[in-house]
Amino acid sequence: MIDFGCILSTFTPDQEELGKVKRLSDDLIREISKYCQGHNIKAEPILVGSSSRGTSLKGADIDIFIRFHRSYEIREMERLGLQIGHAVLRNGIEKYAEHPYVSSYEFGQKVDIVPCFIINDASEKLTSVDRTPLHNEYLKKHLSDAQKKEVILLKLFLRRQGIYGSELKTNGFSGYVTELLIVNFGSFLSTLNHLSTLKGNLVIGDPNSVKRFESPVIIIDPTDPIRNAGAAVSLTSLSIFKLSSKAFIKNPSEDYFGMGPIRTPRKNVDRGTKFFLIKFRRPDVVDDIIFPQVQKMISTITRASENLGFRIINWEQFVGEVGDNVEVLLELEYDQLPAMKVHRGPPVDIENALSFIEKHKGEEIFRGPYVKDDRVYAELKNGNTEFLPSLKNILEKADLGRHINKIKGEFIIERYEGKPPESEVTNIFLSRKNPSP
Amino acid sequence: MIDFGCILSTFTPDQEELGKVKRLSDDLIREISKYCQGHNIKAEPILVGSSSRGTSLKGADIDIFIRFHRSYEIREMERLGLQIGHAVLRNGIEKYAEHPYVSSYEFGQKVDIVPCFIINDASEKLTSVDRTPLHNEYLKKHLSDAQKKEVILLKLFLRRQGIYGSELKTNGFSGYVTELLIVNFGSFLSTLNHLSTLKGNLVIGDPNSVKRFESPVIIIDPTDPIRNAGAAVSLTSLSIFKLSSKAFIKNPSEDYFGMGPIRTPRKNVDRGTKFFLIKFRRPDVVDDIIFPQVQKMISTITRASENLGFRIINWEQFVGEVGDNVEVLLELEYDQLPAMKVHRGPPVDIENALSFIEKHKGEEIFRGPYVKDDRVYAELKNGNTEFLPSLKNILEKADLGRHINKIKGEFIIERYEGKPPESEVTNIFLSRKNPSP
Fold first, then answer.
1. Which of A41, B182, B371, B431 has the highest Cβ tally under 10 A?
2. Contact B367 A199 (CB under 8 A)
3. What's the rounded Cα separation, in Å, for the pair B137 and A214?
């Protein structure tokens, strides 16, 4: 038997933390209200997020939204939002999501103060954060006290699998989605039961009611029917959720709950393959910018390499904190191609099939041109038989996104035979294992 | 300007040959009639084939069919057919198509005497050769004298491209199909005009009228609407016909006419690849049996090698006459695989995805198991890293067809680095070129 009570008490805030959060948020709400009254600002603060709903894990953020009257201009709302934030958070720094907000650590507790507009219905929203207080209201109404514990168990389960969080870094299940799953399926176990037998997409709500959604997870936002709350979840994350649900149900264990995955790298042995490590200093930009750029860089490399005949069978990424490195690891079965390449020409039905023939009639080709099935082919001398120079060439020419483009010149590119080098990215590479543990 | 008259006189029978063929066939028809009368056999001989219609090339066969009354049993008809054949062809030998017939060389001219049943309509046919005299009647009615010359030009054009003949060796256009093309398009040039701009399948007649046909060439037999006269034509043969039509129209030349393709092998230079030659004595069976068996052998090797991770990028075959060898040539970019192979497991949605995980949890694997997209993977030790022993193993285990299975033990299998060995199959391999010339 799993001692869920023990799991909950291990990972949820104790009385001391709860007291501190309560005092801190009450104080801030009071101060913000006072500031608004004193400065004639038509806005009111509201505590949102998991700590307002009793579904938070240890050390969760305090999220306070300031809801402005809709008569304000957006720029004015933003300006006043920052002004209030700085007034109440002495050491606040400015951060940017859809618009700027103030963030700080107060007594070791992270606090975000985010301005938005008051709306009663999602259709009235002016900015995407306006919806957050509606989520809060909805969940307060639909989650029973018992279900709040189920939410926490599900969060811990998803975290252990490394699929909790909707940021572009994780492509997983957000806190809000986790809570909607419990509202929909009733409990932690019934959610896992559903996922363990689910085939294909995870769909909650009518995916064609208002707008047609197509993604692995479709969870119609109950506060906004034109939004898919599960849009960020990748196919891999959904598959990991399904498989870990199957594994847990077959063999339940407390090991399936934790703040993060258990990483036990496999031994770094000779695989008989070739490795390439690309290393550079992380540009000073937030996760939601650097992660998609690294992703794009990898898919650019993979596609361009494939076109040259080099097949990348595995890749892995490590994105350090600002100041640290980004590392991309590529694995190839072969990094040297034969002198001859089979060049696939156009289908014979196409007008210029004949020009392909004319072009390759010369003496200097290996074989052909010839027809196979519905196309013409010619076997030519391959000009790029080594991967390392080809990779350098690809990186030089490709658009790798604004921030990475700027530091292309500083890339360190290294080749390794048989096994990858000791490095952060190799640890991640060798740790890849699902489900966890 | 192309001198079509000169081409025709070069490749069609001269007066001497025509005279000889006429005398020979008249004599045989007379003798067969006399034999039937003398032996009370209800059957009558008929000259069919291209030499009966004036569409033959130099040295064409003489085909005489003996049409039996439908009251005969098939076995009896076969027996009498052979009896008559041997009576009129002193040096006749027996051959087998759908049923046995007698074949011989008379004054250097090949003569076949084939028994069949008299029918007035294809729906009455008892054996597939019964239809042949109907083809003869149809073409005699629909081909003008001028069009007969067009048929000959088209035959010479297709022969030059190596796509004339419907046998399993060629998968090309039969004589009958060639004649139907001229009946349909009117002339050699209008046939080429059609093919040069054709996209997709070649269809003559309504492909869905009686029976639904699906193949690259669909030519409804005008004497039998449930038969596709073009069923034997492969996609590659159709594509070669299209492309050579484009080439001829763009740059017409007498070089496009001849009894066979012009083969000018490319130089045998180092391609940086690996070659494997499989050589064995041709079993004593006809082309229509050995060719499909060699084909099947090659596709078995290709598929099984692919499953082991070895990709065969090119193959070629040489099938000598009986007494000579069969040679199969395989080309691979790499014949050695890394120690590690990425083993693709089942989709996570499938019941036994979890057994895959359990099975590969052990210490001895390289990496994983892990989830990617909708599947599980594990990276394992590859047990077959060398192609040569894998190939031997594949050949040992596979069913290669009755006649090849018997002589498996005599296979000679050789490996070559960089370029293929001097051999018949290498000549074919290096000659592959379309269009020809």
1. B371
2. no
3. 61
B374 near B348, Cβ under 8 Å? yes
What residues of chain B lie within 8 A of the CB of A375, using their CB? 239
Is B357 in contact with A243 (Cβ distance < 8 A)? yes
> What are the distances in angstroms from CA B235 to CA A294, B173, B257?
44, 11, 22
Residues of chain A positioned with their CB less than 8 A from the CB of B272: 337-340, 382, 385
Question: Exposure pattern of B241-272 as b/e (b: 16+ CB <10 Å)?
Answer: bbbbbbbbeeeeeeebbbeebeeeebebeebb
Task: For residue B366, list chain A residues with Cβ-Cβ distance below 8 A.
Answer: 266, 269, 271
DSSP character for A411? Answer: -
Give the pLDDT score at B382: 92
Tokens of A352: 């210029």
Separation of alpha carbons A29 and B100, rounded Å? 102
* B321 and B388 inside one domain: yes
Query: Does the beta carbon of A199 lie under 8 angstroms from any beta carbon of chain B?
Result: yes
Where residue B305 sits, what CATH number does that domain have? Answer: 3.30.70.590
CB atoms B338 and A429 under 8 Å: no
Contact B434 A376 (CB under 8 A): yes
Residue B359 belongs to what domain range? 340-381
Cα-to-chain-centroid distance, residue B37: 40
Over the stretch A282-337, which tens digit does the pLDDT of each residue have? 999 888 889 999 999 999 999 999 999 999 999 999 999 988 999 999 999 999 99
User: In terms of domains, do B212 and B361 share one?
Assistant: no
> For position B188, which CATH number holds?
1.10.1410.30
Residues A424 and A280 in one domain: yes
Mean pLDDT value across residues B96-111:
88
ipTM: 0.91
Residue type, B416: Y
Mutate to test the interface with B, among A246, A371, A417 (most CBs of B within 10 A): A371
Residue B359: CB atoms within 10 A of its CB come to 13
**pTM metric for this prediction:** 0.84
Could you give the CA distance from residue B54 to residue A391 in angstroms, rounded to a whole number?
65
- Sign of the torsion formed by the C-alpha atoms of A48, A50, A51 and A55: positive
Task: Provide CB contacts within 8 A for B183, sequence distance 6+.
Answer: B139, B142, B143, B147, B222
Checking if the pLDDT of B207 tops 90, the result is: no
Give residue A391's pLDDT band: very low, low, confident or very high (50, 70, 90). very high
Match 């069009």 to its residue by tokens: B147
